[in-house]
Design goal:
228 residues; two-stranded antiparallel ribbon; 8 helices; 2 strands; 3% strand
């Protein structure tokens, strides 16, 4: 029994080491996910290389896979589920500050700059105080996050449809897709807060949108909520 526990612990250590290596591979300049809404830049302290990590760790994957809430049925019609997903994505764009830019924010860089062409992630690092960010697109996806998602989903480009699919996959990886489809919006926001620094509870010492404002944006986009 003791030997089995040691073997299990060793396997966990190896998996964690592999995961850390995977997450550190290809990291260039530090990044920050989230376009700053007007007037928010001065609220953010100088924090060096700290940044949100949009991908899950090995332990987070385990927690998601073991959590019963990951598998809670949506119990809504397919058209309602699709409308809720669309509204949730619109809510994220509102939170990240990209929704008001031309073209729905799909060609928006961190801090509001625009890029041309959707052949690939623009990989443009925008300076921000002591760091910089490659966050781009409607959902402010980091370049290294995009590389993993593009290969995983076989996405052909960085166009709007691909950005939408990538954002949905980030939601699914956090075990929140069923909640989004069902309209369990508050629960879903809590699950994906670590993906987008603008969401309440993200904890990156960066400006976060109020939950009430997010729910209003979600409802305004046609989303329905089933939570009591």
């Amino acid at each position: 029994m003791t030997r089995a526990l040691y073997l299990l612990a060793g396997a966990v250590v190896v998996l964690v080491a592999v995961d850390l290596a995977r997450r550190q591979a290809g990291q260039g300049a530090p990044e920050w996910g989230g376009t700053l809404p007007d007037g928010w830049a001065d609220l953010v302290p100088e924090w060096g290389a700290s940044e949100p990590d949009q991908t899950t760790t090995f332990f987070e994957d385990v927690i998601v896979n073991l959590s019963p809430s990951t598998y809670a049925p949506s119990n809504v019609a397919p058209d309602v589920a699709a409308a809720n997903v669309r509204a949730f994505l619109d809510m994220i764009a509102y939170a990240e500050g990209t929704a008001g830019y031309p073209g729905g924010g799909y060609n928006t860089l961190f801090a509001g700059g625009q890029f041309e062409g959707f052949a690939d992630h623009p990989r443009i690092y925008v300076p921000f105080r002591t760091t910089s960010s490659s966050a781009a697109g409607r959902y402010q996806i980091l370049a290294r996050t995009w590389d993993g998602l593009q290969g995983k989903l076989n996405l052909p480009d960085f166009g709007p449809a691909s950005q939408d699919a990538a954002a949905v996959e980030l939601i699914r990886e956090r075990g929140a897709l069923g909640d989004v489809q069902a309209g369990r919006t508050v629960r879903a926001i809590g699950k994906v807060a670590k993906v987008w620094a603008s969401l309440p509870g993200a904890g990156y010492n960066q400006p976060e949108r109020k939950l009430t404002a997010l729910l209003q944006a979600y409802a305004g986009a046609g989303g329905t909520t089933t939570e009591a």
